[in-house]
Design a protein that fits this description.
- With 520 residues, this protein is an alpha+beta fold.
- It has three domains: 91 residues, 2-Layer Sandwich (Phosphorylase Kinase, domain 1), CATH 3.30.200; 149 residues, Transferase(Phosphotransferase) domain 1 (Transferase(Phosphotransferase), domain 1); 179 residues, no CATH class.
- It has twelve helices and 18 strands.
- The strands form four sheets. Strands 12-13-14-15-18-17-16 form a seven-stranded antiparallel beta sheet, sandwiched between helices. Strands 1-2-3-4-6-5 form a six-stranded antiparallel beta sheet.
- A hairpin with a 5-residue loop joins strand 14 and strand 15.
């Protein structure tokens, strides 16, 4: 339970957000006559080892000093007022920014025009250029982490990921990937962020402002694996569109190498004659700004690399170890699975192939699946740049089904008051998904994926990082690598309040399960 007075000075007014790394509060400074409002971020180390704690303590102090320097040197970064440690937890006291996150802006006012989006980018790129000049990578650029300040309508960049990374440090000095899948490129998910990673997140943020579409709602070119978004913003200027296309290229070497380079291209683009963004009412906005605050709640779009979900998904067990599969196996022959077709009530026809150079987007339609999977070309193997649409423990069932559609099978769960949902052969011949939902809360208690051996190891690792909310360690990576390379058939792991296992099943698939440590 969080005390109402922190550090014998900061009075908690109310909680603002809760995430995998701790809590965020609105507070007032009782030492000042003005009782100035501030934002307090509580950060919890995931490792309680005394040696690790001492190392984290030192790194936390260094990262806090960096945040202080950034905030003091740039007016579009919140100032750091103080930091302290209390009861084994670490706290940052930061400037309160009144305004709306870009997420809230789109929700309340709708999509923005070219001029408004270009102005936001022109205001933000110098901020990123300064941050990068200090050798810092933000790691989590997304609409929730940008606030349009009420006083001057300037975008403010909040919630730097470096301090979160410190909180995940393990005793061997390794830390985990920080970021939000969908807005986080594959190299960052693999633990190798670069300045181009921040520009990738900024590009997708701009596309969200223009289209109202999150990354998982965008189509993907079937040949290149690149995101397709222009059909949702047909009036966007060609120059602005070209800048955004380059910013979100799947391979980092094909993106802008610096914020200055992207800014120069953007400044050469003519500004459309649109009115400025309308003023908004003052709103408390602290990252994450959305109603649902866990960082890995929505499946990233970049993951499909042109894959298309078949209308007829085989109702089969995912693998021997898969809890959901075990339930279904009682009714089926595990060695000779039989595919069953679900006939959609209102089938859609296959989208026609575009005759121009603009590729046709591959859309996911959970409610009305595409017909005639036999007539389609075979789905390609997953690209190493792709991300599998998995959801971590704690995600509401409604979020899963709104993105994945109806499961192929539903049954009573094997543990506690749970129900099992299977998306067998979600990517035919490559990937199957499964979930155990709490029947009372409707939240995921266990999340599972089974991969064919043909799926790239880097892709599987990125998926594991999503499943454990970016808390992967080098030890977990090594265990996965051993199973993938057939040097081991089984490994278990634990991280924070989650447990998991990796194993090769009888069908030669690589099964990964992650569950609430209290489940079984």
């Amino acid at each position: 339970m969080t005390p109402t007075l922190l550090n014998n000075r900061y009075k908690i007014i109310r909680a603002l957000a809760t995430g995998g790394f701790g809590h965020t509060f609105l507070a007032e400074d009782t030492y000042l006559p003005s009782r100035r409002h501030c934002v307090i971020k509580q950060l919890k180390p995931i490792n309680n080892n005394p040696q690790t704690f001492q190392m984290v303590q030192g790194r936390f102090q260094r990262e806090a000093a960096i945040l202080e320097k950034l905030g003091d040197s740039n007016q579009q970064i919140p100032k750091l007022y103080a930091y302290f440690e209390e009861a084994g937890q670490f706290y940052l006291v930061q400037e309160f920014i009144g305004g709306q996150t870009l997420t809230d802006l789109v929700r309340t006012s709708g999509v923005l025009n070219d001029n408004s989006v270009q102005n936001i980018l022109l205001d933000l790129l110098p901020v990123l250029d300064y941050v990068h000049s200090q050798g810092i990578i933000h790691r989590d650029v997304k609409p929730d982490n940008i606030i349009l300040r009420q006083s001057d309508r300037k975008p403010v960049l909040i919630d730097f990921g470096a301090v979160k990374e410190v909180m995940t440090a393990a005793a061997n000095g390794h830390s985990i990937a920080i970021g939000s899948p969908g807005f986080m490129p594959i190299e960052q998910a693999a633990g190798h962020p670069s300045y181009a990673s921040d520009l990738y997140g900024l590009g997708l943020t701009a596309i969200y402002l223009l289209t109202g579409k999150l990354p998982q709602e965008l189509g993907v070119d079937r040949g290149s694996g690149e995101l397709l978004w222009r059909q949702y913003a047909p009036k966007v200027s060609p120059k602005l569109a070209a800048v955004l296309d380059k910013a979100i290229r799947s391979h980092p070497s094909e993106r802008y190498s610096s914020a200055r380079q992207m800014l120069n291209d953007l400044q050469s683009a003519p500004k459309p004659a649109y009115p400025a963004t309308p003023s908004q009412a003052d709103t408390i906005a602290v990252a994450p700004g959305g109603a649902y605050t866990k960082p890995v709640q929505v499946a990233p779009a970049a993951g499909f690399g042109g894959w298309k979900r078949s209308a007829a998904i085989a109702a089969i067990p995912i693998c021997g170890a898969l809890i959901i599969g075990v339930v279904f196996a009682r009714q089926q022959q595990p060695e000779q699975p039989v595919a069953t077709r679900r006939t959609p009530s209102t089938p859609e026809s296959e989208p026609p192939t575009a005759s121009t150079s603009q590729p046709t987007p591959t859309r996911r339609t959970p409610s009305n699946p595409l017909v005639s999977p036999e007539s389609q070309a075979p789905s390609p193997s997953p690209s190493p740049n792709a991300q599998i649409p998995v959801f971590p423990v704690g995600t509401p069932r409604s979020v899963v089904e709104s993105n994945l559609g109806e499961p192929t099978k539903i049954a009573k769960g094997a543990f506690g008051k749970t129900s099992a949902a299977s998306y067998a052969e979600y990517i035919p011949g490559e990937v199957s998904l499964g979930y155990l939902f709490d029947r009372e809360t409707g939240e995921i208690r266990q999340t599972e994926v089974a991969f064919a051996q043909s799926v790239d190891l880097e892709q599987i690792q990125a998926t594991v990082d999503q499943m454990i909310e970016g808390r992967g360690t080098e030890e977990i990576r090594q265990k996965l690598r051993r199973v993938y390379q057939r040097r081991s058939n089984y490994a278990s792991f634990a991280v924070g309040d989650l447990k998991g296992e990796i194993q090769r099943d009888k069908s030669d698939r690589i099964y990964i399960g992650v569950w609430d440590a209290n489940l079984h």
